[in-house]
Amino acid sequence: MSTTAQFSSLMASSSKFKTFAIVFSISGPIAYCVIQYLNWPLVTFWPAINRLVWGYEGGLTGQGPNMLWYGWTLSALLVAAVLGFVAVMLPARITDKIPLSLLWILPILSIPYIVYSLMPWWTLAANSH
Amino acid sequence: MGDFISTSAFWTIWLFVHLILALGLLGALTHQAMAVVFPVRRPATGIVTRFRAVPAAGYTTAVCVLWVLTYFVGAFIYTKYRIYIRIPLEAGHYYKTGGFFDFKEHVSSIGLVLLPAYWYLWKNAQNPQYDNARKGVTIVLALMCWFLFIVGHLLNNTRGFGS
Fold first, then answer.
1. Does residue A2 form part of some domain?
2. pLDDT tens figures, B78-99
3. Which residues of chain A make contact with B107, given a CB cutoff of 8 A?
């Protein structure tokens, strides 16, 4: 068996990895929506000048647009990973009670919020006709 | 780079790589979603049944790798989109197109965070306790992938290849 296959088999049979993966994936969509709502990007990137800074940075006139999506995603990954590691430390009698259906319900529920968060685009579209 | 290939060709190649990866991902996820929604219980006959009769678990790692690769290539191209595509879109009042691209970026990130659980559930496909969750996550990821693909395709038609 190759090293990759051994690692894969080890992860697939690990109860700790199960807890981490499930908590990471359940908390990820919520973390992403909350972080986007609060505008807490881990980094801000300015593509026109190749500038990458920690946290949020806006309002640099004459420097082109900023990009927050990378930062929002990194923040969400970080928060989900921290929650996943915290869950690994909890007793199995608690983590085993987490409903697995949240894995697909929460991403679906996040869609209406995302559509709402893009309201400036839809408003502009409605007013441009 | 400038000595070998033009800037426009460079980014077009990356856009094409993004497309190829997305096509692979779309195919794998659609096979898998069809296999969990309409499992084949008898020997496969006909193209549709054979499409559903694939060994779905075998696609799992490929789906995760392809999602991550497509995501990273998309994130790389995104820097150029932000300046050379989005600004002209806004100037041309193509607000719905711009809005749907932002929608796409959010959906792709949410899909990304689902991958660890998706992988775990499929690697333990023999456990009936995970059947419903595995089915749900796979369908959600497949629907997300189709949405991302269609929006990307429409955006490319608006101002993509060769523009």
1. no
2. 998 888 888 888 899 999 999 9
3. 111, 114
